[in-house]
Amino acid sequence: MPAELPPGFKQLRPHQVGAINEAVALFESGVDVVFMDAPTGSGKTLIGHQIARELRARALYVCSDKSLQDQFARDFKHGAVLKGRSNYEVGLPQQHANASMCTSAAQDDPCLYCPSGRPSCPYEQAKMTALSADLAVTNTSYLLHEANGPGSFRGRDLVIADEGDTLESILMGYVEYQASKTLVDQVGMEFPKKGCHKKTIVAWLDEFAAKLAAELTTIDRKSDVQQYNSVRYAIADATTIRGEVTADMERGDDDDDKGTWLRDYPWSKDDSVGLVMKPVKVHQHGVRNLWRHGQRWLVMSATIISADEMADSLGVKGEYATVRVPMTFPVENRPVVLAPVADVTYKNMDKAVKDLGWAIKVASEEHPGERMIVHTVSYKLARDLEQELSQYVEFGGLRGRKVITYTEGRGREFALAQYKKTEGAVMLAPSMSRGIDLPDDMCRVQIVAKCPFPALGDKQIAARLHTDGGQMWYSVKTIRDIVQMTGRAVRHDEDWAVTYIFDSSFRGLWSRWQKLFPEWWRESVDTRSDVRKFIRR
């Protein structure tokens, strides 16, 4: 007998029934990890929920950010949502305090903000509710920190990881090492010079840990528990990374840009972190930090692309399988037009900006009055295109349209709000390939101005590319982002939008790796359109 649907849901669609039955059968046959490739509109969250019910499993649903947690909570009100400590206000309103500022040094030690003890803390209350619930909801970063720390959420029957294609980057962020500039200054040290050998880094880490240990003896744990814990964790982190870097040296990799761990450098000129160590691959950290915390895993995404590559990158050791959910939106509602009119490379950028500007102008004329989003990948290209398009706003092609962009991450939400309330707006978007929902008239035209190839100027990415399977990883990562980009506009089966890809570098990716693109995406590609009109003469 099929599991009962949660309130608000009347029935399952045929493709959902098929996906649920297939996944349940795989788990019952002994598969440890099921990758579910479920495109937009398939209702993958409900699918995951019903799989947990069919298995009668105590489940933990994890997603990439807090907004997705809130969305899940709106749809499945019986799910117990748990966020990080800083999301829970404590004490009096005028104190502006949250649970991350807890001063309790032990279980029975009262906190300054919750004098009656931990049971009165809103974070502790939410955690206890989530621990006792059959369905708890948190984010992936929290799971990594909690399960590898206190460990209260270890061993759930089923972990449902939504937006599973983000697991690698979140795991990378968790295992990488960053030395706090505040603590380095506090113990009177300076960061190792750039380009130094790993032998020097190990010696620096030894000194840093020793000075932190001495600092720890001067801190009153009860009166300053946050500072005490900050130093204690920093000692543990320095000791751990020292072992990793030493292992590299023992294998003969003493240069800071060789081996399994690399030194990276902050982009900011005002460095708040001056020693960053990243693994080339995170697969060796997957079992210890991720997979062992759930009996079975359901990893869901609209862009699995390659389960084999994902399993390799994340270090899956058990048996895994893939369930592919069909696209339900009509193919004629989501055409992808390949118009490779601009060579968007660093050496050719000046010409590329002019070529892209012309192509965007023509697209605007082809779709008068329709909102358009242009994925630029970088802030610089967005700024350059804004300047290039200004001539068309004044003299034709884009006349009457408002071109909107933003120059840093914190301006993203404001720019998006402006775009949504402005008819015929053109959004130059450096960072809207994910988490943006633009149904119906919110977007009728999507443009990929630049293919999102991972930046080879990043030492970790460059090193990863040259490992075994690195080319596949690099291509999958690019394809994943393209599919995400082109999925912002068509959000239900009666919605429609046209996508244009103007970057000529897409041709090489398409010719070599076409079969990696999801079948439903490949069938959208329009090869009949006359693209000559987009070429600047």
Structure overview:
There is one protein chain. With 537 residues, the protein is of the alpha/beta class. The protein has 3 domains: 14-170 and 284-324, P-loop containing nucleotide triphosphate hydrolases (Rossmann fold, 3-Layer(aba) Sandwich), CATH 3.40.50.300; 175-280, no CATH class; 331-534, P-loop containing nucleotide triphosphate hydrolases (Rossmann fold). It has 18 helices and 19 strands. Helix 8 (198-216) packs antiparallel against helix 9 and helix 12 packs across helix 13 (379-395). The longest helix is centred in the middle third of the chain and has 26 residues, at 225-250. The protein starts with 13 loop residues before the first helix and ends in an 11-residue tail after the last strand. The relative contact order is 0.12. The model has no long low-confidence stretch (mean pLDDT 93).
* Largest sheet composition: 7 strands, parallel
Query: Under the CATH scheme, which class of the largest domain?
Result: Alpha Beta
**Count of discrete structural domains:** 3
Rg to the nearest angstrom? Answer: 25 Å
Give the termini distance in whole angstroms.
65 Å
Q: What is the topology, as strand order, of the major beta sheet?
A: 3-6-2-7-11-1-12
Arithmetic mean pLDDT: 93
**Percent of residues in β-strands:** 15-25%
Remind me, CATH topology of the largest domain?
A: Rossmann fold
Please give the number of β-strands. 19
The CATH architecture of the largest domain is 3-Layer(aba) Sandwich
Gross morphology: globular
